[in-house]
Amino acid sequence: MTRRRPMPFIGHPDGVRVPVRIARAVVVGWLCLAPAYAAAQDLWMTVMLDGQKVGRFHATRDVQNGQVLTAQTLDLRLNRVKTPMVIHTALGATESTTGVPLGFSSQSGEVSGSGQVSAQRRDDGAFQVDRILHGQATVGLMAWPEGALLPEGQRLATVSHGFKPGTSYALRVFEPSRQQVGNLRVTVVGDEWVDLPGGKERLHHLQQRLDGSGDAQLTETWVDDEGIVRRSLAPLMAFRIDMAACDASCANAPDQDVDILRAAMVASPRELPGAQRTVPMRYTVSVRGQRPNPLVNTDEQRVTDLGGGNYQVDIGFAPDLGPGGEPGPTIEDTAANPWVQSSTPEIRAMALKIVGDAKSDAQRMRRLRSYLTYYINKTALDVGYGSALDTLASRRGDCTEHAVLFAALARSLGIPTRVVSGLVYNDRFGGANRVFVPHAWVQAWLDGYWVSFDSAQGIFDTTHIALAVGDGDPWRFFASTTALGSIHVERAEPLEAAMNVTLPGVLRPDLVRKALDALFWSPGGSGTR
């Protein structure tokens, strides 16, 4: 079964920070997955969501001593439940005049929570990478990914391929903040007159698709003869994000209030009373806009493709594949990382204190869940994306902080644990009734199954719809995040009510109750999670 590992992007059952994180991830990745915004000497762009101004972008380019220095800064202002969130991201690159990478840097932050990365190429060709994340500094070495390009190299490659309609080529673009490579397929559409704030310009229209994403990560880009981006359009949930070149006064004009939280909500077709949330549930989910399937199979969630962008989702029991139905843990599910610092003495000491004399991993996970439900005692909207150590010290955050701290504590005890991003049902949120909102929780590998635990809500139930799994790194971002505005729950019913419906992939009724009992109530299961 395919395991998507995007960024765990979600907020508390209130889900307040998800769209902001998604917006930043989309735009930051977008800057790196487009040819050389910074190829101009001084470029300003206005950033809009469906025609409403939400930010500005500024890029500079300087040539010194045979090196091309580029700098890009992005500032976004978005609202979530009338609470403004200001996001600042800065990217830098040093290259030769022929586009050979020599160094890069990245700095990002939203209120609290920020990270800095800088790297320089050594004489042996390796890059020394210095990182500062939440006050912790690390130094490492990396080999440059073969064929990966920074902004000047991207611009030169774009120009070299020309602008003949129908031309198609691949680009490998390097993203400094994650130190990862995106593989793009670029197609030349043709020349068009394009409306910009300063008037019309005749530009070359390019389509860029991230490999494997279909149209979920399709960017429409217009560049001039020098390969300099003048306008770009890309999807963001239910919105269209638009960057257009203009003068400094236009780019720095006041931003408008745009609340993107509602775009991340999914209406429920009916009320789901508390008693129904603890029995197996069947959902019919539609995904509009010809997007790839954003749902994932887990040991508690079976997804059946019904065709036409419709999916049947059964939740609440292990599928009739038996143990091993889903792949077991990977290195990422057991290792520490800059956000899930499971190897630190503080995390290990806290975990041992919490679990005490627990005799099994299932019992240890239950004790960790119960403790964290009350330990993180302040739901904070101003925490950017707190790491496990940050959350351990501050006791503040929402479900994302719950998840990364939970994962760190469990991994420190040797329990493979991953972070799940998805949706969860709320009776009322943000003035809306009966909605599914973005959420995060964890899954632990217990007796051959991935079993869910939710310390933010205090219990895992069958209104948790999984979209992706990851290791706790916030930069893991793929199609599931951009699909949020396209997901619709058409039906929701206890599985028993669906037993007489003949649809592909229906699990055998005689196995459902047995599997449910085994998952929730057997000694090897988790009990109340």
TrEMBL record:
<dbReference type="Pfam" id="PF01841">
    <property type="entry name" value="Transglut_core"/>
</dbReference>
<dbReference type="InterPro" id="IPR038765">
    <property type="entry name" value="Papain-like_cys_pep_sf"/>
</dbReference>
<protein>
    <submittedName>
        <fullName>Transglutaminase domain-containing protein</fullName>
    </submittedName>
</protein>
<feature type="domain" description="Transglutaminase-like">
    <location>
        <begin position="391"/>
        <end position="457"/>
    </location>
</feature>
<dbReference type="InterPro" id="IPR002931">
    <property type="entry name" value="Transglutaminase-like"/>
</dbReference>
